[in-house]
Write a structure and sequence with these properties.
about 90 residues, alpha+beta, 4-stranded mixed beta sheet, 3 helices, 4 strands
Length: about 90
């Protein structure tokens, strides 16, 4: 049975109810439109959940499970990071 390349995943972690949450949700929608092959998730976290997951700052962004940024990144920067992630997951 042939399987396709590993699913590419982008995950946004935010403080639940934080003012940056809306900016992250908008960024996630824009990225999903630009990269429909990617599985994109947003996870609102409470303070104790963020601490339990090892995040020192939120928002945090992970590509294929690896944290690549904290804060709200520029869309073009994030797209470049995702392009690098595609090269490593297709190998």
């Amino acid at each position: 049975i042939g399987y396709g390349p590993a699913m590419k995943q982008l995950t946004f972690y935010v403080h639940d109810g934080c003012v940056s949450q809306q900016a992250i949700l908008l960024l996630a929608r824009e990225i999903q439109q630009a990269c429909p092959a990617w599985h994109i998730k947003t996870h609102p976290l409470l303070e104790h959940e963020a601490t339990a997951l090892g995040f020192h700052a939120l928002p945090a962004i992970a590509i294929n499970g690896r944290t690549v940024a904290a804060g709200t990144p520029n869309k073009d920067w994030l797209l470049n990071m995702m392009k690098g992630g595609e090269e490593t997951t297709d190998a």
